[in-house]
Structure prediction request, 410 residues.
Amino acid sequence: MNFSSKLLENAVGEFTKLPGIGQKTALRLVLHLLDQDREDVDRFSRSMTKLRNEIQHCRVCHNISDYTVCEVCSSHRRDRGTICVVEDTRDVMAIENTNQYSGVYHVLGGLISPMDGVGPTDLQVDSLIERIRDGEVKEVIFALSATMEGDTTVFYLHKKLKDFNINLSTIARGIAFGGELEYVDEITLGRSITTRVPYENSLAR
Amino acid sequence: MNFSSKLLENAVGEFTKLPGIGQKTALRLVLHLLDQDREDVDRFSRSMTKLRNEIQHCRVCHNISDYTVCEVCSSHRRDRGTICVVEDTRDVMAIENTNQYSGVYHVLGGLISPMDGVGPTDLQVDSLIERIRDGEVKEVIFALSATMEGDTTVFYLHKKLKDFNINLSTIARGIAFGGELEYVDEITLGRSITTRVPYENSLAR
Prediction:
């Protein structure tokens, strides 16, 4: 592209480094910012720098947080006996949005993926074992993606944790609420038949 | 959404103010930035603030520029006798990318649109007339969108400029190179028949 300004070209270049943002989109976004008041652009820029410089990871669950211990871990209304193991902060947000979970979390910071060079030591596994060793934990729920990487990670963690005297579970897999049978993939549909549940357990609350 | 951090929520909120960026996309972009080095995030932020604070509008053509007079207007290789009138800087970039135009530009900064409350006085019309009055100009090319607003603006400008001793033209409309007839809309196809050109003029150079 033929930019009339180096400043513009730089700003567009920075935006195209973001995932899923091409040059045309970047230009549209930058020109939009250029139309805003200086204070607004300043606020935009400052919010990013501030976030990057001041964000912390919860000392207990490793979720990103404004404090050394996150709000969930420091809340007295959460059940510390149940730990939900997730990949990253987005999963915490998704589960919190359901309002169905009152335990605490453990954020691994990724999934085991030999193809991407991510092994167990790159994840927050040791600190999970430490939390369990502390004795308060009664159940660990694996809430990881239903992918090869997710399954591998669950397999690995299960092997590490099975000798502790705690319950290990994974979130249920099957047909989504509102899902139409004919569009469900074969593996999910097949498994949902073999892992069928008693009718009275199946009702959405 | 249920953010685990106010800092994160702020940053996501700033991103969602950008056009076409929803909350999920904003979160993805911000978490990507959070994974980068502090210097990278700093460079990202600074490029926006710097752009907004230091950008100028060319004193002659009103295109955005790093200098008081833009590179096109100050170039000795551009023909100052031909002015191409466009809506905004994106159009200048698009035309520059064709490498087919060696004249100069005039950026209106918008199109006449009574529905959006944009009248001729909101656009750089007076300075265009002044440039023509200065005497060097031989041709004005209208390169505006083929929309109601674009047509209205051309109509207005034509009325203002028709008494000057200069050529007024608009960029050609018709079927795009590579376009298939059956997918062309009826108006474009009909007009392209009534405004047909001699064969030897129609060849793409």
